[in-house]
Amino acid sequence: MEAVTNPRRERVDAARNRAKILAAAAEIVSVHGVEGLAMAEVAAAAGVGVGTLYRRFGDRSGLAYALIDEREREFQSAFIQGPPPLGPGADPVTRIRAFLHALTDRTVEQLDLLLMAETASPFARFGGAYDGYHAHLSMLIGQADPTADAYVLADQLLAPLAASLLAHRLRTCGVTVDRVKSALDQLLPLR
């Protein structure tokens, strides 16, 4: 779930194969869910050999992490250097709200993949991307209210967006994405 900041340079054909593989895998996940993510089907859909897939990604979970990483890079770029209100240029509270709403959408978009990744081990959710989100929110909270405990508040704002909780609420309890976003707005300690 961690975005790579300095990926190694790929050969043109390897980059092309990677793009085809990730597009095929994303399509399979969108149609059949994570359960449908089988290496042989992805290789066939991408027009590459199964061996290429295994050499490149190792196994099914490696492929799933690559799908998460691709989307994670786009998301991080948007909140670090994209246009306001998600990116720089808006006031801190507006950016916090935009970030939480965008993170909700980003989590829902890849919910099954993130659920798999976040439950791989007891602390799998933390580190990497989570640390980036936490640092970003801590910074914005500190800008909005220098007296706030930004470090702890950032965790409190991120907690409702754990993939397991979000999946449970959306799928089992009938909570909607709009309701989640509205509740996050109510949690914002800074107005």
From TrEMBL:
Record domain HTH tetR-type: where: 15-75
UniProt entry keywords in alphabetical sequence: DNA-binding
Coiled coil stretches, renumbered: none
Keyword DNA-binding part of the UniProt annotation: yes
DNA-binding segment(s): 38-57
Protein name: HTH tetR-type domain-containing protein
Organism the protein comes from: Nonomuraea recticatena
Lineage: Bacteria, Bacillati, Actinomycetota, Actinomycetes, Streptosporangiales
